[in-house]
Amino acid sequence: MNGNNDNEMPMSPGSNNRIRALAACYNATTNQSHIPLPQWKANLQANSEVIKWKNKFEEAEKKRKALLTQSQKCERELADLDRRYQQLHNDHNSVRRQLSEKEAKLAQLQSVSEKVYREYESLKNKHDVQSRVMQDAMKSASQWYMQNRELKRKSTVLVQKFLKEGPVNITELADETDTSSLTDNELENLMKTIKRLTDEVGQLQAELNSARLQEFEAQEQAMSSAAELEEERCRRIKAETELEELRTMKDNLNRVSRLVATEMTALRELCQHEKEEAMRMRSEADKAQKERNVLKHQSTLLLADVVGDEKVMLLLQEIEELQEKLEEREGEAQLELMEEKLRLAESELQCALQRAEHAEKRTSQLISKVNELEGEIEAKCCPPPPPPPPLPPPPLPPAMGPKLLCVSPARRNSVCSATDTGSETGNPVLDMANMLGIPRKPTAAAALPGGAIDDIINQIKGGKFTLKATEKQKEEKKEEPPAAVQEMLNILGTLKRRGKNTSHQSRWPPPADVAL
Question: Which intervals of the chain are annotated as region Disordered (predicted)?
Fold first, then answer.
């Protein structure tokens, strides 16, 4: 109750003064005065300054915290980006290492595949030669068997006849055994020479195939070089024509520039002459102006004397009119003279332009004729294209096999040395199988003994089994290489022709999917 009564009481004059003081302290910053303030007003103003600076400090602190959080966020993003960059760099290095490893493996596979192909070719050729030799040996063995039977019949007849006639001589039997041992030695020597010659023929056949492959690649390279040469020749002719056109344009521009320079010098001289004429005319005009002023002064003096004389006044007016007409006539004459000069200059310029156009047309015609003559001369002087290279010689037929016996001993030694070095380096088929991870099984050909043919011939000569009469075999057609060889040849051709600008059709049909 008392509090309510206090609030409802009217305000005292002291409280009004305090309110006025508070209102004045708000305007203290704007209404400065040299009169010192009371103590309570100074404290109030200091408190307001403190509050203002405190607010500014809080705002600055908020900005600092916001900037600090933003910088921390940027640092986190930078660390994340650094981590990602390092990861990508490591991935890039690993990919490069893998690429180098794959390239090294590819180069190794290429070398091994080439070795395998060469080994396969040599083995195939050796097998073909051995098969032909085997057929010849079987034929000769059958003939020997027939001869042996005939000799046995004759020997039995002779023995029976000899037994009837007299006793057997031991020395003759010994001579027969010696002759049989000599024939066996000769047979062994012949078998060795046949084996050596078969190896040599296989090596020569492999070299022939590689030479044919090199010839095919050389033909392809020659065709691509010829195409590039023709293209470069066309470009050169086009560049020469463009150069000739540019030269003619340059000559025309030089001629036009010389004409323009002469015309500019003439115009400059004319302008200088006109300037000098204008200066002279200006000096004359100044002189005439001075004379006019003098005459005007004199005329005013004369008019002052003869003001009352009308005849003199009329004469003066007529003189002035005549002077004006004379000046007009002179101006018109000068204008007509300038127009006539302008017409003459235009006609001369038109004639010069016509002559220039006619000269340009004439020069273009002459240039075209010169180009045609040069083209005809080049066409006449150009030699015909070289004939295509001759085809490789066909392979030797089986009937010409015995002719290979006459081989030089130097060639035999080189072939033997090449085979020895090939055997020392190792089997390339096994190398490639090991690299590809293919398990290799021992072949049946490796398990056979070296003298199997000798055993068969000895059994035939001993008469243990008989041979059927063989018919005449037809001429064997040349067998196509198997699909694996075709695929290997295609791979080698594409690897060697990689990087070239032009592509040509393959020599062999598309390979089939055959496991090595």
Answer: 497-516
